[in-house]
Amino acid sequence: MATVLIAVYAAETRIRARAARGAGKVKRGLRLLAKAAGGKQGRLAGRRIP
Fold first, then answer.
1. Cβ neighbours, 10 Å, residue 47
2. What is the pLDDT of residues 1-40, one digit of tens each?
């Protein structure tokens, strides 16, 4: 049981750390998604990003 709790804690910590690193980079991420989807033809292209 202790091993499971440690694994869950480690996973949550890793997820929170990755989320903190990416905080505030929404616009950049959406631009990269649009570029990967085919540039201006991408589904996300042209959407207004708040």
1. 9
2. 899 999 999 999 998 998 898 888 888 888 888 888 886 5
CB 34 within 8 A of CB 42: yes
Amino acid occupying residue 5? L
Residue type, 6: I
| Pair 27, 20: CB distance under 8 Å | no
Across 6-35, b (16+ Cβ under 10 Å) vs e yields: eeeeeeeeeeeeeeeeeeeeeeeeeeeebe
Evaluate whether 42 touches 31 at the Cβ level (below 8 Å). Answer: no
Model confidence, pTM: 0.48
